[in-house]
Amino acid sequence: MKELKIQDLFQISKGKKVEQIANDSKDKIRYIQIEDLRNNETIKYCKNDNKYIYASKDDIIIAWDGANAGTIGYNIEGAIGSTLAVLKRKNNDFAFNTAYVAKFMQSKTRFLRDNCTGATIPHISRKVLENLNVPLPSMDVQNKIVILLDKVQSLIDKRKAQIAALSDLTHSVFLEMFGDPHLNNKNWPIVKIGDLTIKSQYGTSKKASEFTGKYPILRMNNISYDGRVSMEDLKYIDLDEKEAKKYLVHKGDLLFNRTNSKELVGKTAVYPYDEPVAFAGYLIKLIPNDKANSVFISAYLNSLYGKKVLLNMAKNIVGMANINAEELKSINIYLPPIELQNEFANIIENIEEKRNILNQSLIQLENNFQSLMQRVFRG
C-alpha cells in the first residue's frame, strides 16, 4: 500500500486572531473555533475580511494549541481562529479522499498530542505533523472506509441525542410539576435556600495527590454544567477523623461550585453514590432540612431561571467569579410540598438509571469505534 506524508498532500496554515461580530451583522462568515470541531451547535460569525485564514469544506482543520491540540474537524467552512490551523490540498496528482485522511488523522490524535511542544501550553509539532505517514489504498477502499466509519459515528451521534433528550425530559418534568420558577404560576410560598438548609460547608484546601490518598476528591471540574457528578479525572487525599466529618460528601448531599469563570460559577449537582468522597475548597456542600429535597433544589438552580439568577449575582474577582455560601443561602426559591419534591426525586432517579444504561452503551460504541479505526488504518 502506498504511503505519503501529510506534507506531500497538504499545505498547513496557522489561523489568526478573529474578531467575533453579532449574528445579525451583514457581510458575515462563520468564525470557527475549537469547540466547532466537536459539534455544530453554536455557530459564531466574523466579518468577511481578507486578513483572516479561511477553511473550505475540502480542507482539514486541526486544533493547534492548548489542551485540545490534535482535535480534527473537516467539512466546515469559515475563518479559523488563532488556536487552529488549516490543511489545504496541494495541487498534485495524488488521488485521495479528504474525509479519509481526516479520519486517519483522528485516529492519530493521541500521537499528535503526545508529541506536542511547549512546557505549559501544548502546541502541535509542525515537524511531527508534516512527517506523519498516511496509508493510501485505492480510492474505492478509501471511500468504503469513510462510509463504514460514518455509519458507526451515526450510531454514536444517535446515542448522544438520546442522552440529551433525557436532559430535556428532566427540565420538562420539573416545569410540569412545579411551574415556571420565574412566574411561580402555581403560587408556591417563597423562601430562601438558607431556610431549607441544616448545614453548609466549604471544601478542604489540602493539596491532593494524583495517585495516593484514602479518599477520591471532587473538584470543580467534577461538576457538570447540566448538574451531574463526574467521577473521571479524580485526585486523592487523606483526611483524619475530624477532617472526614467536615470534608466528606455523602449520598444526597448537594454540591455547589462557588468559584469558576462567570458562566460556570454556580454549577450544582447532587452526589448520587453510596461511597463517600472528599470535596475541594471551590465547592460548597449543602445539607437540606426536612422541608426540602436536594434533588429539587439542584433542579431549581439548574433551570434556565436558576442559571440566570446565578449569572447575575456572580461577582468577578481577578478573572474568576464567586458566589459564597451566604449568598447561596440568600437565593429565593419556591417551596412545593415535600411529598411532591420526593415524587420528583423518584422520577429523576428513574431517568438517571436510563441515562446510566445509555452512557454505558455510548462508552461501548466509542470504544468499538476507536478499535475499528485502529484496524482499518493498519490495513
From TrEMBL:
GO terms for biological process: DNA restriction-modification system. It comes from the Bacteria. Keywords: Coiled coil, DNA-binding, Restriction system. Residues 348-375 form a coiled coil. Residues 2-163, 185-366 form the Type I restriction modification DNA specificity domain. The keyword Coiled coil applies. It holds the Pfam family Methylase_S. Belongs to the type-I restriction system S methylase family. This is Type I restriction-modification system specificity subunit S. It comes from Bacillus paralicheniformis.
